[in-house]
Structure formats: C-alpha cells, structure tokens
Amino acid sequence: MEEEVGLELAMEEDTSKWFPRSNSAREVRDRLVAFALDKGVDLQYNQRITRLQRESSSGMWYCESEGGEQYRAPRVVVAMGGKSFPAVGTDGKGYQLAQELGHTIRPVYPALTPLTGPHPGGNQLAGVSLNVGVTAEAGPSGQLRTDAHRTGFLFTHRGYSGPSILDLSHHAVIDIEGLREAADGTRTTAITVNWCDMSEESWRGLFLSALAKGGSATRLVSNMLGERMPHRLALALCEEAGVAHQRMADLTKDKREQLIGLLTQYRLPYTGHQGYKKAEVTGGGVSLEEVKWETLESGIEANRGLFFCGEVLDCFGRIGGFNFYWAWVTGRLAGMSAASARLSSPSS
C-alpha cells in the first residue's frame, strides 16, 4: 500500500498543473527526506561514487567512493543527473560509470540553454522582451521543422533567452558542437524568429493600409512598427533593413519586402551558447535501447540489478515541467523495480 508524505498540493489554473500549496521546493525536499528517514533509509552525504562493479560470484554490486568508503548492495539505481547545474555537483559521472559497464552513451550536450549572439542592427537590446514565434530547421535541406511551444522571448546582454528560445536551443547547440552534419559535412540547422507571430500577408496589408491613410504616409516606418513591438526592436530591425529614418511614403517595394522578411523570418545569428551552467537539462546519455522500459533495469546481462533514471538517460523534453516529470516518473519506476527485484535471489 502506497503512503503519502503529507505534501498539500494546489492546481495552477492557467496550466492545470499541480504545485505545492506552499510553493516551496524546500518543503518538498524536507518531506521526502523525513519520509525516507522514517522508513529507515541511511543517507550518506558528500559521497562521490567513483567505481561501480558487479561481483559475478554473488551478484552483489560493489561501490567505492572518492574518499575510499566501500558499499555493497544487491541492487543499484543510478540517479546521478546529467551535467547541467554543475554548482550542485552534477558532473556527468553517471555517464562514465555506465560506459565503463558497457553501455552506449549518446553524445552529451547542454540543452534548453540560452544562446549567445549579436542583436538586430548591431544594437544592444538587453532587457527587451516580447511574444514571438520561433522555428528550428534541420536536415540537409532544412526539411525538419520544429516550432517552439512557448512564445516568450528575451534579449540578454550576451544574446537570447526566454521560453521560446530555451524550447529549441538544443538544435542550435547540436549545430554549434557539430553533433549533426549533412551528407556533405555541412551543418544546416537554423533558427528563425517571427517577431510578432504575424504572416507576411498580414504585414503587407498593414503597410498598404497605412499608405492609404494620408497622415500615416508621413510617419516613420520605425514608429509604425513600434505600435506592434518594443520600439527599440522596431528601430533595430529598420536599421538592419536600412530604413531607420524613412517615412512610410518613401519605402520602396523592395525595401518593404526586405523588412517583412526580417519581421517574419528573422534568421537568428547565434554564435554560441551558455553551456551547462545555464542549461536546464542535459541532452544525450545512456542509450534507451539498452534499458528495459518496463523496469528501467540495464538490458546488459552482466549488469542485472543495475537501474537508471532521470537525466542520465538519453531523454529530455521541452520546458514546462516535462523534465521534472521525467525525473519523478523514472525515479519512481526504477526505485520500485529495484525494491521488488531485491526480494529475489541475487542471481535471479
């Protein structure tokens, strides 16, 4: 029979997600720790496991820490996280241990991390935020398209962030790190931004409508755009198109089309990323093909009794709580599977 830790939850109406009523991550931690201690769990702090090996004769697992402490257990769950947020001790050691035990490790990289690069028009737009549409294109001809599920965009001092960018930034990281290449050896990933999430035809209609109004024809193009986006961004886009000081009436068709292209299909000029320090999750990891999905136990015969969960596995999701969900669900499954398996003989 399952027991509860006594954490009171409340649903967030906008997202239909459940959170602690206290809105405190510390309460979640404290209640889980208290529950574990009440059940007799022995918590060993500041122990970094550096060696993991299964004794073939007994089927027991042998663990050794950096300080020389040794542990033996019939079952082991590897829940060591990835490499993101290194300040809390995540250094990718789980990948190394799994690889030493014969598992395939898919290329590891920082995912859901801010990107670096110049702002439109060469301006400094740090702090400017708006809702946009972001699309990532990959593949030899850009035929693989993925749209961001979130719309928030933020200019930072170093480049770009916000939910929309984090949602798709792993495509840029894969490009930058050379983890996906076309047949001819070139990387073809691109990220484009639709600054107001409006179609080209909608913009053309707005320009023509403005010209049809006598007074609007004398307005600066940047001022017209500034009614639909932050004015600093509007001016920067106009500067990039070379129409920063032009009036609506003086805007040629070619310049108008160039500007509409920048408004709807702005190719984000990313030059780098902010790495694991800012990444919300790590991409890559232990190949899922080598893990039993029913229990998350290693599928390698010599590793019976070894389980994996969370970020150490080659799986991550978009932002919005999905990676936490993956951690909780796989942690629960791996833990319950290991506890159940422990009831049988070591060799079974």
TrEMBL record:
Which spans of this chain does the record mark as coiled coil?
none
Which protein, by its recorded name, is this?
Answer: Oxidoreductase with FAD/NAD(P)-binding domain containing protein, putative
**Regions crossing the membrane:** none
**Does the keyword field hold Transferase?**
no
Q: Which Pfam families match?
A: HI0933_like, HI0933_like_1st
What InterPro entries does the database record attribute to this sequence? BaiN-like, BaiN-like_dom_sf, FAD/NAD-bd_sf, RsdA/BaiN/AoA(So)-like_dom, RsdA/BaiN/AoA(So)_Rossmann
Give residue ranges for domain RsdA/BaiN/AoA(So)-like insert.
109-281
Please state every residue range assigned to the domain named RsdA/BaiN/AoA(So)-like Rossmann fold-like. 6-336
Report whether Flavoprotein shows up as a keyword of the record.
yes
Q: Which domain of life is it from?
A: Eukaryota
Q: Which UniProt keywords apply?
A: FAD, Flavoprotein
Query: What cofactors does the UniProt entry give for this protein?
Result: FAD
